[in-house]
Write a structure and sequence with these properties.
Length: about 525
C-alpha cells in the first residue's frame, strides 16, 4: 500500500507498543495495557542490556544531534550490543554531518547514554533507541560541537556558579500538519504549494475524487485556537501522537489546535531539566513527523510556512531552583517575581539581539517576528502581556509555578543550544545585576507613545549582533569560540546568502514591469 506515491509507514499499534514497553513483550492478563508514564530509567549499560532482553528487542538505534539541530541515526542488531560499546563508542564520519568536521579529520565517536534507553515508539520491528554523546577519537574528550554536551556544560556551570542547582524548562513547540506540500527552486522557476483540507482557502473547492465532498468545516484565518471537531479535524491524530510520546517517558500536559488555519497544532510537555527537555523535544519532532507520515500527512516546524496567518513559535518557560526552592518567586515582587528573576530577565533582554541568532536561527524566523501577529517583537517584559518578549504567566499563585516565558524562540532552533544560550544570558543578567527596566503592562502594538525597542528584523542582523556580543556565552567554557565561529559561518554562507542570491517569486509581482 502506498501514501502519496510512497510506501505506507506502518506503525506498531498503541496496544502492542504499551505491551512491549510495560510488560516485557508479553501480555500478562489479556487486558488492554494502560498507557501511563512509568518508564524504567536505566542507569548503567548492564541495565540497558537487561531492559532490551526483557522486552525482546532485536535492533539497537543510535541517535545524535548535529550543530543545527537535526537528528541522525544508525542501527545494529541487538546481539552486537555489549557493555563495551558504552565505554569504547562507535565510529562515524564527522565530515558528512553539516558544520562538523573537515575531510582530513572526519573520524568521530558516539557513546550512548544509558539513561536514554527506550523502546522506539514508531518502528514496527522492536527497536531499542539510545541517545548518544559525541567524542574525539584521539583525545577521547567530548566534542566541542556536540550540542548535547554544550547543554550539559551549561547545567554544570549553573551549579558551579552557586546561584542555583537546577534550571527547569518548558518549551512549547508549535507546528503545522499539512495534507501535502510541493516546493522547488531552479534557475528558471521557484515555488511552494501547501495542501491542507483544514485551510480556509479550500472553502470554495468543488468535489474532489481523492478528498471527497467539501463539508465546509474549517477554521478561518487566525481562528483555529481551541476549536472543537469537526472544525478541529486533528483530535484523534494528536491523541495517538501523545500516546506514543508517553511510551517514551514524555510527560504530556495538553494538546489542542492552535491559532492559524491549515492545521496549526500545539502539544505541551511538562517542564523538566535542560538536557532532558532538549532530548524530549527531539523525540517530540520525531514522533510527530512519523505519525503524520503514517496518516498520509506531513508536519513542519518552519516558523512561518505561509503568508497571512500566524507562524509557529516555541515559547520557553524557565526558572531557577536551589535546594528544592523556586528562586524566581517573591510574593512581594512584581508579578510575584524575585529580584533574581528580574536580573535574569535583564540579561535576556540585553542579549536578545544576539540571542536570537541561536533561538530564532533561520531566515524564515524573521517572517514570524514582525509586528501585528502573536509573535513578540517588543523587547520588554510584562505580567500576562503576550505582545512583550517576556511574559510572566499568571495562571497560578503557587510559588512552584512562578516562572518567566521567553516568547521569541521558534522550533527551528537546536533545543540544546537554544536553552543553553538562554540560561547563559540569564546568568549574565544575575551576575551583573542587569536592570530590565519597568514592566510594560499594555498592548505594545497599539501604544504608539511608548518607546520600546524591537528585535532585529533579519537573520543577517542578529548574526552581526552575535559576532559582537558573545562573551557571556563563553563563560565557564560552555560555548567555545570555534562553535560560535562555525555557527555564524554556516548561517551566513548557506542561509543568509542562500536567500539573498535568489530572486523571490513575489519580486516578479512587484518588479517585472519596471
Amino acid at each position: 500500500m502506498t501514501t502519496n506515491g510512497r510506501p505506507e509507514l506502518k506503525l506498531r499499534s498503541i496496544d502492542e507498543l504499551a505491551t512491549l514497553v510495560y510488560d516485557g513483550g508479553k501480555r500478562r492478563d489479556g487486558r488492554r495495557p494502560q498507557i501511563t508514564p512509568n518508564i524504567k530509567r536505566c542507569r548503567s549499560p548492564k541495565e540497558v542490556l537487561d531492559y532490551a532482553r526483557e522486552r525482546e528487542l532485536v535492533i539497537v538505534d543510535f541517535k545524535f544531534t548535529d550543530l543545527l539541530g537535526r537528528w541522525h541515526h544508525f542501527s545494529i542488531p541487538i546481539h552486537q550490543l555489549d557493555e563495551g560499546v558504552f565505554e569504547e563508542g562507535l565510529g562515524f564520519d564527522g565530515s558528512s554531518i553539516r558544520a562538523f568536521q573537515d575531510i582530513h579529520e572526519s573520524d568521530m565517536l558516539l557513546k550512548p547514554d544509558p539513561t536514554t534507553a527506550v523502546v522506539d515508539p514508531v518502528m514496527q520491528i522492536p527497536t531499542l533507541s539510545l541517545t548518544c554523546n559525541i567524542y574525539d577519537p584521539l583525545t577521547h574528550e567530548p566534542y566541542n560541537k556536540d550540542t548535547r554536551w554544550i547543554a550539559m556544560k551549561a547545567e554544570r556551570f549553573l551549579m558551579q556558579s552557586g546561584l542555583a542547582d537546577t534550571s527547569y524548562w518548558g518549551p512549547e513547540a508549535e507546528f503545522f500538519v499539512f495534507d501535502g506540500v510541493r516546493f522547488d527552486y531552479r534557475t528558471q522557476t521557484g515555488y511552494f504549494e501547501i495542501e491542507s483540507d483544514m485551510a480556509i482557502w479550500e472553502s470554495g473547492r468543488g468535489h474532489d475524487p481523492r478528498r471527497g465532498p467539501n463539508l465546509g468545516y474549517r477554521p478561518e484565518a487566525k481562528m483555529g485556537y481551541f476549536r472543537v471537531p469537526p472544525v478541529d479535524a486533528m483530535q484523534d491524530w494528536r491523541s495517538e501522537a501523545i500516546l506514543r510520546m508517553i511510551t517514551t517517558g514524555l510527560d504530556v500536559e495538553v494538546h489542542h489546535g492552535e491559532v492559524a488555519s491549515a492545521g496549526q497544532q500545539e502539544i505541551d510537555l511538562k517542564y523538566t531539566t535542560m538536557v532532558r527537555a532538549a532530548d524530549q523535544l527531539q523525540w517530540y519532532k520525531y514522533i510527530l513527523k512519523n505519525v503524520a507520515v503514517a496518516y498520509g500527512k506531513t508536519v513542519t516546524f518552519m516558523p512561518k510556512p505561509m503568508y497571512g496567518d500566524n507562524g509557529s513559535g516555541m515559547h520557553c518557560h524557565q526558572s531557577l531552583w536551589k535546594g528544592g526552592v523556586n528562586l524566581f518567586y517573591d510574593a512581594n515582587g512584581y508579578a510575584g517575581l524575585s529580584q533574581m528573576a528580574l536580573w535574569y530577565i535583564g540579561g535576556i533582554l540585553k542579549h536578545t539581539p544576539a540571542l536570537l541568532a541561536i533561538v530564532a536561527p533561520t531566515t524564515n524566523s524573521y517572517k514570524r517576528l514582525v509586528p501585528g501577529y502573536e509573535a513578540p517583537v517588543m523587547m520588554a517584559y510584562s505580567n500576562r502581556n503576550r505582545s512583550a518578549c517576556i511574559r510572566i504567566p499568571a495562571y497560578s499563585d503557587n510559588p512552584k509555578a512562578k516562572r518567566i516565558e521567553y516568547r521569541c524562540p521558534d522550533p527551528s532552533s537546536n533545543p540544546y543550544l537554544a536553552m543553553a544560550a538562554m540560561l547563559m544570558a540569564g546568568i549574565d543578567g544575575i551576575l551583573n545585576r542587569i536592570d530590565p527596566g519597568m514592566p510594560m503592562d499594555l498592548d505594545l502594538y497599539e501604544a504608539h507613545d511608548v518607546n520600546v525597542p524591537q528585535v532585529p528584523g533579519s537573520l543577517e542582523a542578529v548574526l552581526d549582533h552575535l559576532e559582537r556580543d558573545h562573551d557571556w556565552l563563553l563563560r565557564g567554557g560552555v560555548f567555545t569560540p570555534d562553535v560560535i565561529e562555525a555557527w555564524i559561518k554556516w548561517k551566513r554562507k548557506n542561509e543568509v546568502d542562500g536567500i539573498r542570491l535568489r530572486p523571490h517569486p513575489y519580486e516578479y509581482v512587484m518588479y517585472y514591469d519596471v
